[in-house]
Design a protein that fits this description.
By secondary structure, this protein is an all-alpha fold. It folds into 2 domains: about 45 residues, no CATH class; about 130 residues, no CATH class. The chain has 9 helices and no strands.
């Protein structure tokens, strides 16, 4: 009853955070037997492993469920939203973090965080649109933009993070990387 009315993904996220805080904060990791060892192993997994094993099947599943005829008609709008739309969103987010947060973060760190936060994930919105019987064109627009904006955000993050680490980039390198 405590989580009634919340979406399943939100409940799982909250339970995961609470469980992690309890296990790490109190130090119960080692005293819970197999569960504690399992938790410890999950915390040591390389995040790239999760990214490269979980993301492709999710993206492929979404891509296979899209109506290709509709997708061809709205492809330009999807590219516009997922390309310049995500770049502008990341830039505005980075600028907000740089100007308004009291931490005096370097601008490249703000750009890196802006790239992480800029990609929207409208899975719940698409499910709701399908359930309510909304226009298939609108549903495919949102679904297509969702598929493409993840890629744009990953490219933005990679460029910003590499620049933060000190790798030199000139504008030609950045544009070449963004066009890949």
């Amino acid at each position: 009853k405590m989580f009634k009315g919340l979406q399943q993904t939100v409940v799982l996220f909250l339970l995961g955070c609470i469980c992690s805080l309890v296990l790490r904060g109190i130090g119960l990791e080692g005293s819970l037997g197999a569960f504690g060892r399992s938790y410890g192993m999950w915390m040591l997994i390389d995040p790239h492993l999760l990214l490269f094993t979980l993301l492709p099947p999710l993206l492929a599943g979404d891509a296979m469920s899209i109506d290709t005829n509709l997708a061809m008609r709205v492809a330009g709008q999807c590219l516009y939203l997922a390309g310049p739309g995500v770049v502008v969103n990341a830039a505005v987010t980075a600028l907000f973090l740089w100007v308004y947060l009291p931490y005096q973060w370097p601008f490249l760190l703000c750009c890196t965080l802006g790239a992480i936060l800029c990609a929207t994930d409208p899975v719940a919105v698409v499910a709701l649109l399908k359930e309510l019987g909304a226009s298939p064109t609108l549903t495919v627009q949102i679904q297509g933009e969702s598929l493409l904006n993840d890629g744009t955000a990953i490219v933005l993050y990679t460029v910003a993070y590499n620049m933060l680490k000190g790798e030199p980039y000139d504008i030609g390198d950045v544009l070449l990387y963004l066009m890949e």
